[in-house]
Amino acid sequence: MGNKQSIKSSSSKNPIILYREALRSQKENDYQQALSYYNQALNHIESVDQAIIDIDQFQYDIFINICDICIRIYNTNLAKIYIDKALQMVYNLQEQHKMALCLDRRGEIKRLDGDYDGALLDYNKSIEIKFKLNKIEGLDLSKSYKNIGNVYDDQGRYDDAISLYEKSLKIELSIINHNHPRVADTYRCMGNVYYHQSKYEEATSMYEKSVKIDISVFGSDHPRIANTYNNMANAYSNQGKYDDAISMYQKSLKLHLPTLGDSHPSIAQTYSNMGSIYANQGKHDNAISMYEKSLKIQLSALGSDHPSTASTYHNLGNVYTDQGKYEDAISMYQKSLRIDLSVLGNDHPSIATTYNNMGIVYANQAKYNDAISIYKEALRIKLSALGDNHPSVANTYASMGNVYNHQGKYDDAVSMFQKSLKIQLSVLGDNHPSVADTYHNMGNVYRNQGKYNNANLLYEKSLRIDLLALGDNHPKIADTYNNIGNVYLARSKYNEAISMYEKSIKIKSSSLGDNHPSIADTYSNMGNVYRNQGKYDDAVSMYEKSLKIQFSALGNNHPNIATIYNNMGTAYQDQGYYDDAISMYEKSLKINFSALALQDNALIQDDKTAYLSAMKKKQYFSAYMKALQQGSCKNKVIRAVFAGSEGVGKSSVMRVFTQQQLAIIQDPNQLADQSDKMFHIKVCKIKDRTMYSSSQKMWENNVHEIVQLKYQNQSSSPQTVKLTQGLIDENLPVNDQNRIDSTNSITTNQYSSITALSCSTDVSTTSLTDNNLFLQKCQDFFQYFYPSWSNKPADDSQYAKIWDFGSHSIYHVIHQPFLSGNSIYILVFNINQNIHDKVLTREGHLLNITYLQSMQEWLTSIIGGNANKDNMVATIDSDQVQYSLPIILLVASHGDRIINMQQKIYRFIAFEQELITRMPCYRSNIYSSRIIFNCNPHDNSNDTLAERKQCSLRLHEIIKSFVQSLPFMCNPIPTRWYIMAIILHTPADNEITSSYIDTIRATRVRKIMTIQEIQSLAKDFNLYEGDDKLISMLSYLHELGEIIFCHKSDEDSIIVTDIEWLMHIFRAISQLHDCPSGSLQIKSLYEMASRTGKISTKYINHVLAPYKLDDKTRKNVIKLMETYDILYTIESDNDRNECHYFIPYLLQPDVKPVDLSQYHASEILYIGYESNEIPYITDGIFYCLLASCLEEWNNTKVELYCQCAKFYLTRNRHYITIKKDNSHIALQYYYQRFDKPKSLHLIKSAVQTSIYKDRPHDIIKEKLSLLINSRMPKFKGSTVRYYVRCPQCSKLAFIENKTDLQYENLIQCQNESCNMLFESQSMHDWIYSKQDHEK
């Protein structure tokens, strides 16, 4: 030591001596001392005699050596500084070979930083320079191959890496001794690749070759050998050979400690590796001890900001995760993250690895959204740094798949696992353990879905691979046996399940020891088997075994222990030991509250529900009755209606939104048949877009929530219940025994007196025997709202009933009974079509209406038919905006037809602005979503699926925002209304219902009913509270689309309980496609209907025959259609005793227009409204107007044309045509032409006299006003006017009732850009003065 001091003292300023000391320290791995000497040498370099030494070369050597040390100690930031200095000197010296060497080092720095593309670029530049200098030969070329192979290894390009290492090895073996250290390095590199491929036998073979060479060259005590022992130990660890691994690590320590001392980073790394072994064995305390030893050395030798220190913090986080100490785990990961971010930057793969493990913690805490979010960030980094085909990317996809599996998003989970599998098969091959893991995970998904055969197939695939790669005693084999056992458990194959669990325990005990937490999990699973078999003592024994291990390994507050308590609680509850069950549930809750720290966590909710269920079993009957008497809650149901023009892809948008697969149908006729359906209905839970095929579950959940709420509010004092017609006394006694009968039947002991509730109106007190019979029925009824799913939390969600209206133009009228002002409408248009284009059908036919007219039909029908003039304030994207009801969301389809996104947005805005320009008064009803769906069924690429999902989520969020603000959703709704909805509900074919409910429906509920029948039903089930409340209840159910309630008067009101049935009938009567089969008479009636718009009673009876309606039902259907102006009764042209029906919209669109060539015609007079009041007159209003005129003039000879009707007024000898013209009605009269002037004058005079005296235009105007006021309540009170067309600008100008103009019969155009005064022939033909007439 004295020698060293004297050398330092005598040569403290001699750079050459300092340089030599630095080299010696570097060789001895004393890197900090070496760096100190190099820096001192640089500080005194001016003192060097340039005659003795080349200063530039000397300085270059120091820079290179400092760079090498920094690479060795992972200080890449300092390494970059010195390699850049070296490169600058090389540029100045113009020494190309040295430049190549510098590029090799810079490539290594970039590799360590995760910049693999940059590293390859530098390595390849180096090779290129060496080739140009003819210096790339032998070992130099071998070294370059090895460098690039290292990068390929890091990138997961394992086959490429092996190929380059083999090239390097071939060169080395041909030039140098087979026992050379460089050959040993190559074997070690190849071993690392095999290790990463999980080819552990091959990896060990390579490591053994490397060790053998190193021992022959350096002896058995050299640190190089210790490093290879570490690598071999890692391989043993991954094979589950933990004892062999520990032995290797101890050999490594034995070699390192004497030469490196106990504070060297290599010692720390070995301690860290040993900690990982203990962690895998579940020996968490031992693992923490090793990691803390490692951390102490690293903090001392490397500092608090070194990546190795970060790695140890990371490993500690892994152990804390296994222990369920999630907050401690996150703290460790954050420490690791802080270091790596400062040293490696934001986009290094190590950062992604830490994010990934933090995601695991969040997933364990059931913070699934947080987990997915952080996994996505990890994925972004990995894709950027490693490319899209790296095994690490596959791992993150798998992690996301596990989260989606826990969330019940099984399709998303499978999608993630398939992405993972694709990468693994490509990079790792068919037989890699990681591939087995992914098969295993996919098996878990299928098991959770109940697809047990699929699950078992995948578990067996996983098992085959793992047996081949890992042997038959690896813990992963045991995990697979465990999960196969879970499948058998789910399929009630209990003996097979136990057999699998026992196999699993045998392997785990052998490889992990008897006290590993994984064994505890399998004991718990065996307990579940015994519980399902009714072997409760055996079940509890298994749970207790599991608890004992968990306490020892994980402490008292791990979520796994909470799960076991929960299982024990279920076992006690199944036996009727409710107090014991409640005690277990309370323990489970306490742990989960402590460990998970989130009251809304799914695990906590399950515990809470189980806890409450044990108590509800005693008193649910009382709770239900209280809810019936007192229960109410906010309205939680609304309709969301998809509408739009024919062929715009509306149904496809709905299918995407409701998470259904798009149908690919080649036959256009088949597509047309599908599109002809008048409506489809789905039910969507607004909170999370869960879809139901019917509204049954929605109503059940609402009733269940109220019952549960009432249960929680009950007092604990003894009570009894007495039931009488319409009265409920709360006197239900509580059974205070700790353990009661497990059948949950209601016995005579529990009630002092019960008066039966029968289906007849005569209710009397009965004997106890009859009471028991009644309770058997009531229990079926009440438990229908409170079945096995009552063990789940109360559902306070809001629901949207999703309707998809048929888009044929004839359906615009038929939809009227089903429209509601308290619905949200999603109006779909085709982004690829111009708004003024004619509508193109799916079959390629052009209709006689434009997309604008179709949108006007929908908007005016929806908005005008709503009597509610309320406004609401909605918050969308943080903006508060006032809207008028009803709300209409504008959405586009066919986004796949336009590639350019800006062009899509431009077309959307143009469409939207044209609508508002044409219909300014609807502005406050319309929300422009700017959502554009791609509904091409042939395009299911990942990008397209992601785009559809994003559009659906955006639409879902908008709907949710409006729903939460709608006044309708804030109204309190009595429980009785929900119960009536369930009774009246028509179940789908695959719905599971109560036998008692089915009996009610079969005997008491018909498809179409009178108000008196509904009233009787309500009374019999204690749901009647007076006529007014009954009407309110039926109106509410009508608003939601559960029923059709046609309320005309108390005597004539009609209720339809099966809406789909009614829709089919409407369609059968109102739609004509192909001539029906039948007699010639029926075919003749069909031809008449399509030509004239009139159908006979015989034809209606023919099309309704398949529905087997009795006479009363048929009459009620006709009455309903008349009430909603779908058809009109008229007399037959030939038989006054036979009814005909006028249905104008049946007219085929190819009917020729009115031919006026043989007539003298008046100028057209228009009747209508200003566009800011009523911008459009719907088909429904127009057809009502025609029917009203038909009734007025008693004219059965009306002729129908396209949106036009021709009436012949026999007495007045002239015709009048009434034609729809957007927001106006066009009137024109005409009469026969005569060649003789006298005859022409006579007929003209007679016609003009009749027009003046009878004033048919006033009649039509008055009828239009009445129709608007009665059928379009939104526009009630709007002013109807006469209009004529301006000859200058062609705009319509209304005729003032009073004018300040000097000249009579002059009209001023109201168009501001025109303002022309003109005289109108229409005024002379229709509204001329009496004086003119007398002249």
List the helices and strands and how they pair.
Blueprint: H1 2-10, H2 15-27, H3 31-43, H4 55-72, H5 76-93, H6 96-112, H7 116-132, H8 138-155, H9 158-175, H10 181-196, H11 200-218, H12 223-238, H13 242-260, H14 265-280, H15 284-301, H16 307-323, H17 326-344, H18 349-364, H19 368-386, H20 391-407, H21 410-427, H22 433-449, H23 452-470, H24 475-490, H25 494-512, H26 517-532, H27 536-554, H28 559-574, H29 578-596, H30 602-630, E1 632-634, E2 637-644, H31 650-657, H32 668-675, E3 679-685, E4 691-692, H33 696-712, E5 720-724, E6 727-731, H34 768-784, E7 799-805, H35 811-814, E8 823-830, E9 838-840, E10 846-850, H36 851-864, E11 871-876, E12 879-884, E13 887-893, H37 901-918, E14 926-932, H38 942-965, E15 972-974, H39 975-984, H40 995-1004, E16 1008-1010, H41 1011-1020, H42 1027-1039, E17 1044-1046, E18 1054-1056, H43 1059-1070, H44 1080-1092, E19 1094-1096, H45 1097-1104, H46 1111-1123, E20 1128-1131, E21 1139-1142, E22 1159-1161, E23 1165-1168, H47 1179-1193, E24 1199-1201, E25 1204-1209, E26 1214-1221, E27 1224-1232, H48 1237-1254, H49 1256-1271, E28 1281-1285, E29 1292-1294, E30 1306-1308, E31 1317-1319, ...
